[in-house]
Amino acid sequence: MTVIEITGTPEERISPRQRWSHYFVLLFGVVGLLVGMNLRDSALNAVSVYVNTEAGIRAAYPHNWLIDFDPDYVFRVRNTTEIGFKTTIQIAIRPVGANTTGWNVLTAQTLNRAQTLAAYNVTSIEPYTLPDETQATIMNYSYVAADTNPFLQSAPVAVRGSDILVIKRGQAIIITFLSDAQLYDQNIRILNRFLRDLEF
Question: pTM surpassing 0.85?
Fold first, then answer.
């Protein structure tokens, strides 16, 4: 008669050193993830500072945006890395008379744009409070932007825009924000951060 003995495989014992090494690997993985997220947020939120002492404006804009100047505005920054319509922030200053109201300035803006922008449409005009409690007026609008370069055949883009108007020291300060209509709600945080750091 044959006796068959069945025995289980011996349990592998993990030494305390191996156990602690597992914990350290997990800990280093979590720390690496947090450091990576922090670096990413720092890169995304990095800003450059623009100061114009003559106009009395100090603004912090996204670091990788392109800045340009023109007689029609104090400065303009655009996200040139964006595909399609480039999200834009612009500040313009217009001298105004003592009796000029915000409505007069915004009406002039509307008349000028209606002549040059396709399907221009004002959607709302309402009071607005800036982060520093300055009272302003905001005009929201939309239009269709088409590429003016005849060699680039791209589909027209629906654009949403906002003009924030403040009348101060005999000047109308107009902060303009433009974005692809589909990305407007996502990009509005950029404007909010810009307004928090804006001084004029």
Answer: no
